[in-house]
Amino acid sequence: VSRPKLQAPRGTQDVLPEHAADRLALEAAARGILEGAGYARIETPAFEATELFARGVGASTDIVQKEMYTFEDAGGRSLTLRPEGTAPVCRAYLEHGMHKAPQPVKLWYLSSFFRYERAQAGRYRQFWQVGAEAIGSDDPAVDAETITLLHALLTELGVRDVALRLGSLGRPATRATYRELLVGHLRAHEDLLSDDVRERIDLNPLRAFDADHAGTRQVMASAPLLVDHLAPEDAEHFAEVRARLDVAGIDHEVDPTLVRGLDYYTRTVFEFTSGVLGAQSAVGGGGRYDGLIEQLGGPPTPGIGWAAGVERILLGAEPRPQPRALCDLYVAGTTTAAFALATEARRAGLGVQLELAGRSEKGRLKAAARAGALWTALVHDDTGAIELRDMESGEQEPVESASAVVAQVIRGRHIA
Ligand code: HAM
Fold first, then answer.
1. Which of 20, 41, 317, 324 is the most exposed place for a label (fewest CB within 10 A)?
2. Is the pLDDT of residue 92 over 70?
3. CA separation for the pair 332, 171 (Å, rounded)
């Protein structure tokens, strides 16, 4: 009987050992930059009540309408694999009373997320994001700072051909007035629009700016723009954000049509793209969500943040040289004495690999070289005699005891 081959589900991928170094470097860079700026790590559950995303991300978004992995558990609860991190972090902020801590509360995460999307290069059904959220202040300095931190991260990781687009959506009242204006414009040119856009004129007219459809694009070319209709406080907030990006030397382009795929945004929105990523060029994005916490049942609380796709960062970065494995000592022996030597060396803090495949004495040396060992301890099967070989020079000497091997390797490490 032949059975179908088992494979990772469509849109998912294994993170293999050869990818580990790049991911570790990304995590180290994110930790350095974000924790240096006072952000603390948070990890929320991989699944949440479906209601959180329906209310937080917004019922009219693609994410909620067609991309969520939603299931009922054995207890009859509707749960959803998290499609994004902002709503969960805000839920945690509320649940743990973080409004009592000094504001803004600054949190970062590196986690995997799930969206039922059409899989292609740079777009997956399970993907990783590094993200940062600053909750509890509407100061434009928070907007500019958080954008600056993402810029620093992309720069440190060597993401190529990066550009920043920035916009402001104003606050809900402004947006409601503007929305009427836009709906009026779309209605006036309804016959030119794609079916998709026409069906959603009332639900989400802003998405029309996102369309590829030629007729829709023609209509949008003359559409009214929100940036031209901002309330004075919002226009001033936006100008303050931009002034700070200018002093930080961060080039940006104001894009009045910047649309993000989530409903919670207010005021500042932004997106970093990389020119080397092809169709999925958005490497990271975010914005302000001053109404979200209230939407989730909390007191009015401003917030802003971003998330960047880990796979896209790695695709967009210069390839890095693979670092060498760290093996101080290869114990080329199979006896219990060899095992004891390896254990003693590890307890002394050394990186130690042990002969595990019963190779011949010649084969063991080859394996030690492959492992990149600095030293090899040849433990003879019959006599128990130990010889220590300096793998770089090829010099080999008899050594009295396991302790002497450990001492010699530690000394060698200090000289190196
Ligand atoms: P987002 O724009 O949906 O925002 O996702 C942020 C980034 O995650 C994207 O720029 C992209 O790099 C990556 N990404 C998204 N979907 C996929 C996918 N299917 N495959 C691979 N990478 C993907 C958010 O998720 C918001 N929570 C960001 C935010 C935080 N806004 C405020 N705070």
1. 324
2. yes
3. 68
Q: Is the CB of 272 under 6 A from ligand 1?
A: no
**Quick one: tokens of 338?**
């060899």
Sheet holding 303-309, edge to edge: 40-41, 105-114, 126-135, 303-309, 282-288, 266-274, 162-168, 253-254
Mean per-residue pLDDT, 207-214: 88
Nearest CA to 129 out of 113, 108, 106, 152 is that of: 113
* Cis amide bond preceding 104, omega within 30: yes
Pocket flag, ligand 1, residue 85 (CB < 6 Å): yes
Q: Whole-angstrom Cα distance, residue 331 to residue 151?
A: 46
Q: What is the pTM of this model?
A: 0.91
Q: How many angstroms separate the alpha carbon of residue 13 from the centre of ligand 1?
A: 18
Tens digit of each residue's pLDDT (9 = 90 or more) over 247-256: 999 999 999 8
104 Cβ inside 6 Å of ligand 1:
no
Q: Which atom of ligand 1 is nearest to the CA of 282?
A: 10
Answer whether residue 309 shows pLDDT above 90: yes
> Does 165 contact ligand 1 (Cβ within 6 A)?
no
Rounded distance from Cα 264 to ligand 1 centre (Å): 14
Residue 291 Cβ < 6 Å to ligand 1? no
The residue written with tokens 């414009």 in the block is: 185
Q: Is 106 in the pocket of ligand 1 (CB under 6 A)?
A: no
For residue 15, give the amino acid letter: V
Protein residue closest via CA to atom 25 of ligand 1:
84
Q: CA dist 229 to 173, 183, 224, 287, 303, Å?
A: 11, 15, 9, 19, 23
pLDDT at residue 415, rounded to an integer: 66
Q: Give the separation between CA 313 and CA 269, rounded to whole angstroms.
A: 20
Q: Does the beta carbon of 286 lie inside 6 Å of ligand 1?
A: yes
Task: For residue 192, give Cα distances in angstroms to 195, 206, 226, 255, 399.
Answer: 9, 16, 22, 24, 86
Beta strands per DSSP E along 276-394: 282-288, 303-309, 329-332, 352-354, 375-379, 386-390
| Distance of CA 306 from the midpoint of ligand 1 (Å) | 8
Point out which residues pair with 396 in neighbouring strands: 389
Q: What is the Cα gyration radius of the chain?
A: 28
